[in-house]
Amino acid sequence: MLFEARNVTGEPGSGVRYRPVSLQLEAGEILTIYGQSGIGKSQFLRALADLTPHTGDVLLDGVSQTKIRPENWRQQVGYVPAESGWWADVVAQHFSEQPPEAWLSMLSLAPELLDAPVERLSTGERQRLALVRALVLQPKVLLLDEPTANLDQRNAQKLIELVKTYAQSEQAAVIWVSHDVDERALLGNRSLEICADTTHQAHRS
Ligand SMILES: Nc1ncnc2c1ncn2[C@@H]1O[C@H](COP(=O)(O)OP(=O)(O)OP(=O)(O)O)[C@@H](O)[C@H]1O
Question: Which residues form the ABC transporter domain (predicted)?
Fold first, then answer.
């Protein structure tokens, strides 16, 4: 498995300010991403998931995103936003199938939570359940936007362990946006700073 981004950035007028990004990830690899607030990290993940127009190309096993229907692409390239969307009343309605109890227990989520109304979930429960919901679809690539932002340290560590285990056992690639230097260290040694595109300033000076 090979996941590639080639010169990806936002289209003019998209609001993003990052220099075009190229990267390659193989099966089982985890890459962390960091950079200034507002530079476009979330928009970069959305581009990789084919959720927003962008320049450059994204390829999975050599096949361009442009050649695959968006819904098929997103089955293989799973995106978990910082603030997950919940559209039905009950948690279980958002799951394509029953998640393994081992995943729930690893994240300290009681199985009964699946039968709970979404409005009763805490912010951290939503965040953990959004990850489980994405994992159930068995993506080859997992794009995570600050997935531990609302979690205490213990739950954050458990979530890291679950994602690492998933990447290894399913030979999936993971891109994880994190502002936390300690967290990035726990996730491994591949890290990429998203930098500002200074092309226009450079041309003016
Ligand atoms: N739908 C949109 N239309 C226009 N501009 C947008 C849209 N979504 C985001 N932006 C802008 O794009 C820029 C990048 O936003 P993004 O959320 O990707 O930044 P970020 O690097 O993830 O920030 P943070 O670290 O604060 O989460 C911001 O200036 C934001 O206002």
Answer: 3-205
For 13, the domain range is: 3-193
Q: Measured between alpha carbons, how far is 89 from 76 in angstroms, rounded to an integer?
A: 26
pTM of the model: 0.95
> Ligand 1: which residue has its CA nearest to atom 18?
40
Rounded Cα gap, residues 141 and 138, in angstroms:
9
How many distinct structural domains can be found in the chain?
Answer: 1
Q: What is the ipTM of this complex?
A: 0.94
C-alpha 74 – ligand 1 centre gap (Å): 21
> Which atom of ligand 1 approaches the CA of 10 most closely?
12
Instruction: Work out the pLDDT band at 164, boundaries 50, 70, 90.
Output: very high
- What is the reported pLDDT for 201? 44
- Where residue 123 sits, what CATH number does that domain have? 3.40.50.300
Decide whether any atom of ligand 1 lies within 6 Å of the 16 Cβ: yes
Residue 93 DSSP symbol: G
